[in-house]
Backbone:
């Protein structure tokens, strides 16, 4: 009888630890920024930045290129009542700034929702002769 209670306690502890580990999953963002200047002219200058960064809680992660283009991102698990533990969908919010610090684009909640392990490509052509491509690949650590 005592042996059976010990096994049940161990099973409860293992299940509790599994839930605890899943609850503290950390989002890792693989981000690529490609900035093309002079598009449509005879000479196109391309700058690239590729970074892998962990997102902890609700803190913003900042990616800044040498030419001044800045990307600020927040990432959080989407709420899902169908899944146990962290959701497989990541909700990303943030903003993109040009070299002068002016906002080019704001990414609101629900605008960028990416499945873990799948890449999202965003192409921004708001500037006249410039194109900024963002690639975001979320993973869980």
Residues:
């Amino acid at each position: 009888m005592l042996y059976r209670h010990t096994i049940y306690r161990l099973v409860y502890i293992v299940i509790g630890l599994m839930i605890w580990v899943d609850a503290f999953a950390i989002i890792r963002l693989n981000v690529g920024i490609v900035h093309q200047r002079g598009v449509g002219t005879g000479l196109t200058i391309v700058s690239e930045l590729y970074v892998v960064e962990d997102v902890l809680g609700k803190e913003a992660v900042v990616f800044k290129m040498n030419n001044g283009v800045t990307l600020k991102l927040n990432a959080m698990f989407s709420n899902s009542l169908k899944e146990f533990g962290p959701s497989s969908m990541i909700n990303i919010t943030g903003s993109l700034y040009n070299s002068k610090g002016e906002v080019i684009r704001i990414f609101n909640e629900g605008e960028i929702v990416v499945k873990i392990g799948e890449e999202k490509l965003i192409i921004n052509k708001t500037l006249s002769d410039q194109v900024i491509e963002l690639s975001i690949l979320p993973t869980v650590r």
Notes: The chain has one domain: 26-140. The chain is about 15% helix and 50% strand.
